[in-house]
Amino acid sequence: AAGVIQSPRHLIKEKRETATLKCYPIPRHDTVYWYQQGPGQDPQFLISFYEKMQSDKGSIPDRFSAQQFSDYHSELNMSSLELGDSALYFCASSWLAGDATDTQYFGPGTRLTVL
Amino acid sequence: KQEVTQIPAALSVPEGENLVLNCSFTDSAIYNLQWFRQDPGKGLTSLLLIQSSQREQTSGRLNASLDKSSGRSTLYIAASQPGDSATYLCAASTGTASKLTFGTGTRLQVTL
Known about the structure:
Radius of gyration of chain A: 14 Å
Helix content of chain A: under 10%
Oligomer: heterodimer
Radius of gyration of chain B: 13 Å
Strand content of chain A: over 45%
Structural class of chain A: mainly beta
Structural class of chain B: mainly beta
Strand content of chain B: over 45%
Largest interface: A-B, 28 and 25 residues
Distance between the termini of chain A: 37 Å
Order of helices and strands of chain B: EEEEEEEEEEE
Number of helices of chain A: 0
């Protein structure tokens, strides 16, 4: 079965640089979520989109922005990177219109390292 | 604001033992609760999801229960194996298309 795809899997950036993380949800899924997991921490919700509209927002810095495109893939843009942005970034998708359980399926994550 | 905690933070058991992992949440108005497994530096693998209207779910050697009134969920692992060694996370959502609030995780080690 198709899973959530994230790219790149690993990314190394310098401080103050910009990074773009991509997420391709499971086909037919209409909702995308982004989470950040710092070293030794639990995942923290950043932002979500339903049918290309932002549906919820968590502790996402103003330096970060995200959007969901017409093909339902999503991108997380991160500017002015700081050392503290080093983390695993997970994307998850769900099928709000067709799955009453609203199960979120997670991608493998993108490991971002800021030097 | 939903807060989720897990006890114990770490657990070491010999192979073959049955064990219980605990998850507590502060807001009983949850929509569903998911249990995940995470290997070091890896992604999240969904193990079980319990909807608010359910009391338990089973998958193989795993059984998860939910008690909304007491704000608790448990994950029961039967006949533990070394391959079960990982961090187990519970996460609660409070509505459809709602964010998941994760617990602090229990790091499990199953020894030979």
